[in-house]
Amino acid sequence: MNENIWILMSADAIAIATTLILAALGALFTERSGVLNLGIEGILLTSAISSFLAADASGSIWLGLVVGTVIGAVLASIHALLSVVFRANQIVAGLALVIFGTGLANFLGKPAEGKSITTVIKPLSFGPLSDIPVIGPIVFGQDIITYFAIALAIVASRYLFSTRPGLELRATGDDPATVDAQGLSVARIRIRYTMVGGALVGLGGSWLMLAQSAGWHQAATTNGLGWIALALVVFAGWRPMRIIFGAVLFGFTLQLPFTLQAEQITFIPSAFLEMLPYLATLIALIALSRPGSRNLLGAPRALGTPFVRDER
Amino acid sequence: MRIPFRVVFEQRGETPRRLSFLVPLASVFAALFFGALFLLATGYSPIGTYTNMFRDGFASFNGITDTLALSTVLICTGISAAFAFQMNLYNIGGEGQLYLGLIGGAWAGIALGDHLPTLIMVPVVLLCGALAGAAWIFVPAFVRSRLGTSEIVSTLLLTYIAASLIKHVIYTPGSFFRNPNTSFPQGRMVADSASLESFGSSRLYPTFFVALIIAGALYWVVKRTEFGYRINVISDSPRAAHYAGINARRTTVWVMLISGALSGLAGAMLIVGPYGKIEPSIITLGYGYAGIVVAALARNNLGLIIVSGILFSGLRVGGNNLQVTTDTPIHIGVMLQGAILLFALGGEAFRRYHIHVVRTHDASSKKAPA
């Protein structure tokens, strides 16, 4: 058996985890503020196609990343407006965003069908370090956004648990009334983090397009990664560091079918392998839930409930 | 930075009747206006696009019959979503349950062959589809009621698994559901006795009336039966339901199973109606997701779903024909669906709250001596 391909698979699993880490961190920031944004999948798709179009028109992949990130924040602001200002049902608002984003992305993607970009985000070069067996391709074979995503998760963890704004963010998700009594604006904090979250999701979608697929494949471009990211937040217990671990784990299940196919291991039906990431997510989700365990897991207590001062 | 005014939301004691009607209507127009701006920006003619959509969706024989045909499916997925939503159970995997309905219905239609008359065969196919849909939601329903696992994520993940299943049964050589006589992968036709005839030259099937009857029957169940009463109590106040001795767990499971069965039924209706076999292209059509929009637009009212289902189908049918008649991308229809729902959600605030803008007095200017 070819050992090389398994090393490559590990490298690819970490690579694909980048989108998951960014999208899940985006969802985590949003949910920590008490807002549930189910529209992640729609934001990923729209950001992906926007970044493609921007990169294609300007010839700069970095401009593509910026445009995708901004579009992510803009779409999330729709959700913030509906759920924070208009106090709409956050679940339905998120689903509306998925449908709207999917339609918008497919509409915008019409001229991009069958096209591909020539310059994609390339792995960084670490010189001789990249030639170290096993560790080389896995640790030193990634691109800058992958390293950025991992660093961001570490910084996010510090930010959430060891800084003043992080404390305010967590308090807004757990006990908005107290935050309000402190003289802080619950609405403003929630809108801010919903948009920051959307920007991170947008970056994840842009990276997926510009580093991984490099072409528009309609809804198959993201293929449910947004939903996996949402489950990943539950899996990680709303803690950034655990997201890295979970994302790599899910990255492996996403990458496994390709590797087994390349190795010509065919005793497992390909349809089953295709289901594997979703099945693994589902099983993890069920295994982590116990009666009344929502708070044990660390879910923000006010998640999904609008804050209204005068109606208490 | 000080903003000189403040927006105040004042909860309404009672919603004026005209608002319940005007708000959804205004949302649709606001979404169409937004869509028009978008069409203009991308270089298409909004008036031409909308005229075509209206003509092909409602104002022609083929248009209106195709719209009613599609609404057959969307009314079913719509009540599937609404039935669960009204109890705060968010089954958003109707899409996957619909795929299973196709598989279950096609299985019955092929396996039972021509032994039974149509009058028995068609109900059996529909029943098998409904059962398959219910089976697909069983795990999410069970773990939701026992462990509190989010049904939102679990039903959705199962949709992706169901899509793989559809592809698997069609593309695997020698599969039971695959047509053995063609090399090109396509579904095997069900027995003739399991197929209904459409009305005249239209593509509208009698299943449309089945959908209407089911919507009516469920409306009756929710309003008039003890089971419906339990659902209402649980959704209004879980605590009151607990003290009243209502078994919320069991009701949760039943409501979700019925919701899954309704989406499965929608799939089976495609088998006895227009498809007659498993069409793998179903996974790109999003009929199950559209059911969520239909339900939300009707605010989960099972009677209004018939109206929003037909309205929505017209939008889809008109949007689909755009690709044929003009070069406007088909996806404008899906985008408008999402936009209408977003505007409807925003509009909801105007229905529930009295919103007014209050001028805030600038503290510094007040200091002027009297």
Automatic annotation (TrEMBL), chain A:
One of its GO terms (cellular component) is plasma membrane. It comes from freshwater metagenome. GO terms for molecular function: transmembrane transporter activity. InterPro entries: ABC_transp_permease (IPR001851). This is Unannotated protein. Its main location: membrane. Keywords: Cell membrane, Membrane, Transmembrane, Transmembrane helix. Pfam families: BPD_transp_2. It is a multi-pass membrane protein. It is found in: Cell membrane. The chain crosses the membrane at residues 6-28, 35-55, 61-84, 91-109, 144-161, 191-210, 216-236, 243-260, 266-288.
TrEMBL record, chain B:
It holds the Pfam family BPD_transp_2. It is found in: Cell membrane. One of its GO terms (cellular component) is plasma membrane. Keywords: Cell membrane, Membrane, Transmembrane, Transmembrane helix. CDD domains: TM_PBP1_transp_TpRbsC_like. It is a multi-pass membrane protein. Its main location: membrane. The chain crosses the membrane at residues 21-47, 67-85, 97-113, 119-139, 151-171, 204-222, 253-272, 278-297, 302-318, 330-350. One of its GO terms (molecular function) is transmembrane transporter activity. The keyword Oxidoreductase does not apply. This is Unannotated protein. It comes from freshwater metagenome.
